[in-house]
Amino acid sequence: MLLVGRAELRGKIKLRITIQDEAPKSITLKIEGRVTGPKVPELNRAWQDLATSLGSRKLSVDLRGVTFIDTAGRNILAEIHSKTNADFLADTPMTKYFADEAKRST
Known about the structure:
5-stranded mixed β-sheet
C-alpha cells in the first residue's frame, strides 16, 4: 500500500489517498475524507501518477471512506472512469451516487 496524499486539520484527517497495488492484475485507488477545493489537485496528481503506471491492470476506485466530493472532484472521477472503465466500490447512497454520476458522465 502506498500513501499518496494526506491532509489534516486540527488532527482530523480531511483527505487520504492510497494506492493498493494488487499485482499483477489490479490496482485500487482508495479515497477517504472530503475531496473539495484545494484538496482536489491532490486527487488529480494521484490519478495522473497512477495513470502512467496502470498498464493493462484493472483499476478499482474505493469511495467507501468518502464523506463529500465537490464538482471538480466528481469531474476527476468521471475522467478516471472514461479512461479506464474503473470499477467503483461504494457503500452509502452518497458514494453510490458519486459512482453512478461518474459512469454516466462518460
